[in-house]
């Protein structure tokens, strides 16, 4: 299970100890919401997971459903070449946010990649 290698009232860094990225992100999300409930903001990072995080909108939406603005980020290995280059130097590095809505409405959620195509689209194209 992920364990804290740094922790303050509003922030933490978790060592994922080689677990699945989704397990690490879920632990980080839960701790961030716990800190936000107690102090108004919660920032938690992870390192050391061995797989991808899956659809990061899941985490941003869950945070927004708890009543907070949710931001989720993920990095990945180089898969994308810059314009005009032939060597991959950038990851697809997804970004998601979730914004809570009044009146019990579903959160507004955006999940995007910083590349022209998401990780699995790049992997399918390479196959």
In words, what does this structure look like?
This protein is α+β, with helices and mostly antiparallel strands. The protein has 3 helices and 6 strands. The strands form 2 sheets. A 3-stranded mixed β-sheet has the order 1-2-3, with helices on one face. A hairpin with a 3-residue loop joins strand 1 and strand 2. Helix 1 (21-39) packs parallel to helix 2. The radius of gyration is 16 Å and the shape is globular. The mean pLDDT is 92.
Label this structure with key terms.
single chain; 127 residues; three-stranded mixed beta sheet; three-stranded antiparallel beta sheet; 3 helices; 6 strands; globular
Annotate the secondary structure layout.
Layout: E1 3-7, E2 11-15, H1 21-39, E3 43-47, H2 57-65, E4 70-73, E5 95-99, E6 108-112, H3 119-126
Parallel strand pairs: 2-3
Antiparallel strand pairs: 1-2, 4-5, 5-6
């Amino acid at each position: 299970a992920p364990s804290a290698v740094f922790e303050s009232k509003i922030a933490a860094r978790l060592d994922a100890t080689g677990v699945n990225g989704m397990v690490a992100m879920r632990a980080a999300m839960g701790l961030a919401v716990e800190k936000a409930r107690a102090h108004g903001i919660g920032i938690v990072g992870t390192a050391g997971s061995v797989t991808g995080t899956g659809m990061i909108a899941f985490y941003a939406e869950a945070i927004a459903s708890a009543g907070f603005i949710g931001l989720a980020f993920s990095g990945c290995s180089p898969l994308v070449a810059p314009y005009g280059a032939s060597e991959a130097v950038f990851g697809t590095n997804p970004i998601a946010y979730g914004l809570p809505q009044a009146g019990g409405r579903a959160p507004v959620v955006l999940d995007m990649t910083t590349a022209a195509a998401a990780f699995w689209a790049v992997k399918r194209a390479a196959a």
